[in-house]
Amino acid sequence: MSHGMKQRAIRKFHDMDIPQLCDRILAGDRRSLARAITLVESRRADHRRAATELLEMLARQKRQALRIGLSGTPGVGKSTFIESFGLMLTGQGAKVAVLAVDPSSTRSGGSILGDKTRMDHLARDPNAFIRPSPSQTHLGGVARRSREAVALCEAAGFDVVLIETVGVGQSETMVGEIADLFVLLLAPAGGDELQGVKRGIMEMADLIIVNKADGDLKPAATRTCSDYAGALRLMRKRPQDPPGFPKAMMVSAVEQTGLDVAWQEMQTLINWRREQGHWQTRRADQARYWFTQELRHALLARLEDPDMQTRIKHLGDKVANGQIGATAAAEQLLQAFDSPPSSSVP
Q1: Residue 309 above 70 pLDDT?
Q2: pLDDT digit string (tens) for 274-290?
Q3: Is residue 345 part of a domain?
């Protein structure tokens, strides 16, 4: 984005009417939804205040969608699966939003954000909305404001929100604090692939879906599915799961086979959790988790305040010179939180 475009975007947000933007989102206006996601992703203090106001207004409507987190090993075909799965859902009359997170470069900070080009048919579907976002080096497999983007999509009236993570890794479990269901996508391979997936991912998966179960790869997909089904049986039973879950199954996103069965399994699991009260409990636990996360980020942001930076440097010099111990210096700095910051951007 050029400097001129950035300045125009800033002026647009500065002049925005939050109640009007709220009404447009509730009416399902796509352009307003995209604009609101840009707003919540902004780090500017005035944008954060506007985003908080907007989210509080939208939360009063108490709209909910089914949130499905999707992760997978490299080359598994996440984009192909999401496009085929999303088109199946829109064909049944559902409105589907896709929030795809692309990894950001640690050197330049840039991201490719090419998910809309990889999901060309779904991107043109009037009942679908695709929004790629940069991870901005934020750990956890999702972007810093993915949770708020999900809330915006729910308010806009989408029935299903698919959250595609960066890819399998040790920190990928963060999506479990956003989604109602977590789906792990795998490609056909031998049983040795079990060694390539972290146990934390396995333990949080509600469904393990082996993609590319077609053509010459179908026998390998069958073996892989069997391997993971056996591994799941050895894991501890979770109280939020009915008998038979979590489970492993096969699909072919290219041939569009098995997708309807996967959707039926997802609905069976979600309906059971709703009936047993696990859905409401999980949503409440997630809300509590994100409250503590926001509090933590707000406290860390105060360390970026110029006055606080001055105090940190002063105390750091005293620690380096042996005038005060590190623990005592940290205690002094924590006491400084009692005084109001000059400027703070969570």
Answers
A1: yes
A2: 999 999 999 999 999 98
A3: no
Please name the residues in contact with 219: beta carbons below 8 A apart, sequence gap of 6 or more: none
Are 101 and 196 in a shared domain? Answer: yes
Tokens in use for 103? Answer: 């990894």
CA 159 from chain center: how many Å?
Answer: 16
Determine the distance from the C-alpha atom of residue 47 to the mean position of all C-alpha atoms in its chain, rounded to a whole number. 21
End-to-end CA distance of the chain: 24
Q: Which domain holds residue 51?
A: 1-61
What are the backbone dihedrals phi and psi of residue 248, each rounded to the nearest 5 degrees, phi first?
Answer: -110, 145
Higher model confidence: residue 250 or residue 72? 250
pLDDT (0 to 100) of residue 109 = 40
**Pair 238, 269: CB distance under 8 Å:** no
Residues 170 and 216 in one domain: yes
Same domain, 35 and 136: no
Residues 91 and 196 in one domain: yes
175 and 320, same domain (yes or no): no
pLDDT at position 281 is: 94
Token digits of residue 161? 């929100």
**Cβ–Cβ under 8 Å, residues 255 and 218:** no
Cβ-contact 81, 253 below 8 angstroms = yes
Q: What's the CATH number where 198 sits?
A: 3.40.50.300
Cα–Cα distances in angstroms (integers) from residue 219 to residues 118, 213, 215, 222, 253, in the given order: 27, 8, 9, 5, 16
